[in-house]
Amino acid sequence: MERDQQDPGHRHLFHVPPAEGGDHPEVAYFAGNSLGLQPRATRVELNEDLDDWARLGVEGHLDAARPWLPYHELLTQPAARLVGALPSEVVVMNSLTVDLHLLMVSFYRPAGDRTRIVIEDAAFPSDSYAVRSQARFHGLDPGTAVVRLRPRDGEDTLRTEDVVAFLDKEGDTVALLMLGGVNYLTGEVMDMPAITAAGRKAGAVVGWDLAHAAGNVPLSLHEWGADFAAWCSYKYLNSGPGALAGVFVHERHHGSPLPRFEGWWSTEAATRFEMTPESRPPRSADAWQVSNPPILAMGPVRTSLRIFDEVGMPALRERSLRLTTYLRELLDEVVATRPLSVITPREPERHGCQLSVRLHEGNAGALTKRLRFEYGVIADARQPDVVRFAPVPLYSTYQDCRRAAEALAACVEETK
Length: 416
Description:
There is one protein chain. By secondary structure, the protein is α/β, with parallel strands linked by helices. It has helices spanning 2-6, 40-56, 60-63, 73-83, 96-107, 125-137, 142-145, 160-170, 192-201, 221-224, 295-311, 313-335, 364-375, 398-411, and strands at 28-29, 90-93, 116-120, 146-149, 174-180, 205-209, 228-231, 245-249, 340-342, 355-359, 377-378, 380-382, 386-389. The strands form three sheets. The protein has a seven-stranded mixed sheet with strand order 2-8-7-6-5-3-4, sandwiched between helices. It has a four-stranded antiparallel sheet with strand order 9-10-13-12, with helices on one face. α10 (221-224) links the parallel β6 and β7 (228-231). α4 (73-83) packs across α11 (295-311) and α5 (96-107) packs parallel to α6 (125-137). The protein is globular.
């Protein structure tokens, strides 16, 4: 397609799976919001770390080409640039829900009338499980301690003004506001600066789950003033299944008396091998680390972050909007005559690279199977009735978008 020649993206940097159906050798891959594709450099650079282990054994902690002892520091600055933070505010560690729990140990401190945790009703289930378990841990009834904000009747997405209005009215009961920066189901981008400001004005702690935001939309966490945030690296950050997550803790909390769980990596690096019984935590997000980092799991994250540094989030966001605009134009033609609707907000500032389609008839899982095995299009089903299409700007093409729209039209009959 002429559009792909003019706006080629960076598909050559990735392995694209072969198609299992349709007329094209490679899939049209729209599931990067669930698991990103593998960068070609990942295997090469991971093998370099494996070779150092084979060659050096324990001495690799200091003598490897990328020494293991300070390895996590190689990820800090690129991760900070990705989310708009100071390097001291970011650390890559653990997995997303583990990190949210470690952060809530510090930042969810219910007291008096201020005990509630506010999330969105369409939060990803693991966030729901996490906040409910935190409420129970503090001896509270999650049925009343957890507030789930819902869209207005007949609407699919949560309005910023409704979140702000709730905080204005009931903010003095809120201990923690923790929303998803980009909603996993609808693809809606929340107004993170406005909601953060409203939450802090109400006296609540504000945290963000950025699983669907990091690597998808530009972020300015330090400037926005959120207390904390966490994100995973296996979706838009293309670091592999179950990849390590990232954590942001605003610098105003560094060195604070907030409670934290501690372990070997919670203490200052310079004193780590003194083997003293008491931790001396650094004045940075590193203080929230517990265990020593898994080097072979960090390698793919480092490889991916380098790609984001080289390409840049501004350029990726611009291409993302071009791709989603094109895909939405194609989907508009398809849904106009079929029992389908696009539930992702139309305004560019209110969506990332995901467009979600709701089926008014049929089953989302059955539809995505047909798309894959009959047309070579991989999309993502959220049962019972939502199919998510994510044209990822690093590797998706305009031809992919046309293939997806044509396959959807072929799979869903027009309304008679």
